[in-house]
Design brief:
Strand 1, helix 2 and strand 2 (39-40) form a beta-alpha-beta unit. The longest helix has 25 residues, at 190-214. This protein starts with a helix and ends with a helix. The chain has helices at 2-17, 28-31, 135-142, 162-167, 190-214; strands spanning 22-23, 39-40, 59-62, 67-70, 74-82, 95-102, 110-115, 119-121, 129-133, 157-161. With 217 residues, the protein is of the alpha/beta class.
């Protein structure tokens, strides 16, 4: 649990550094001090199993009915997948940020996914500052989600409908939905390779003969 607390504190510090009101908990007496949106950061362990994460999508598993039941007032807006190393040297595991919105109607319709690869620091224990940083791009895209609707699964961010997540047993891993675009690689034919090898062999033979001549062998 100590590693989880360190991860939570690191997230709170990062959000605060960007000028956002961030708390490491959400007690009423502290929340009332703010007249603006507050980011309440909590990090907990979770058990991954069938419908184990259905409550993230605004549903709860009804044991009596044996099926998920919609839970009003809770909407999962986004899943930001973070690379392993973001919380080093405390922990090297891959993590994700889940962004929720309280509503007065139903739950989740679709979820925005972002594949974060850099946060402005190296992903080793030293965590030195580097040029690569996806955070400004994440903020810009999240503030304009209407422009994200037509993005393809091969891009860094995209939408996934709730129905597809349900079909995948409520799996919120971005790799479950992201598509990799493979670029075909053309290799020379066997004949070309053999021709090149023979040419190299002839060059080596000529160089060896020249060396023997210089050494009077």
């Amino acid at each position: 649990m100590r590693e989880l607390s360190q991860i939570r504190d690191a997230v709170v510090s990062a959000l605060a550094a960007e000028g956002m009101a961030a708390l490491d908990a959400y007690p009423d007496q502290r929340a009332r001090r703010y007249g603006c949106p507050v980011a309440a950061v909590a990090v907990e362990t979770a058990e991954s199993r069938t419908v184990g994460f259905c409550n993230y999508l605004g549903e709860v598993f009804d044991t009596g009915a044996g099926a998920p039941r919609e839970l009003y007032g809770k909407k999962l807006e986004a899943v930001i997948s973070m690379p392993s190393g973001v919380f080093k040297p405390y922990a090297g595991v891959s993590t994700a940020i889940l962004i929720f919105t309280k509503t007065e109607h139903g739950g989740t319709d679709q979820v925005w996914f972002y594949d974060m690869t850099a946060d402005g620091y190296s992903l080793d224990d030293k965590r030195n500052e580097v040029k690569e940083n996806d955070i400004p791009d994440i903020i810009a895209r999240f503030r304009n989600l209407s422009a994200e609707a037509d993005r393809k699964r091969t891009e860094q961010s995209f939408f996934v409908p709730k129905s597809e997540i349900v079909e995948n047993a409520y799996d919120l891993s971005i790799n479950k939905y992201k598509k990799v675009e493979y670029v075909p690689v053309e290799y020379p034919s066997t004949l070309e390779i053999m021709t090149q090898l023979r040419e190299i062999e002839m060059e080596i033979s000529q160089e060896m003969e020249e060396l023997e001549r210089l050494l009077n062998l």
